[in-house]
Amino acid sequence: MRIPFSRLVEELNLEAHQLREWEKRDWLGEVVKDHCQSHHRVYREEQVDGSS
Fold this sequence. Notes:
Elements: E1 2-4, H1 5-11, H2 16-24, E2 32-34, E3 40-44, H3 45-49
Antiparallel strand pairs: 1-3, 2-3
């Protein structure tokens, strides 16, 4: 399952800039652009729950 950027920010109670910083530091691994969602960034569950 893919988790959209906006949902992840909301669920983790983060500011968008914090999540972008995590991306810059490569703490989340590869970020995917979802072609079905206007190329918005999405994350795999494994990236979020740390099981990867």
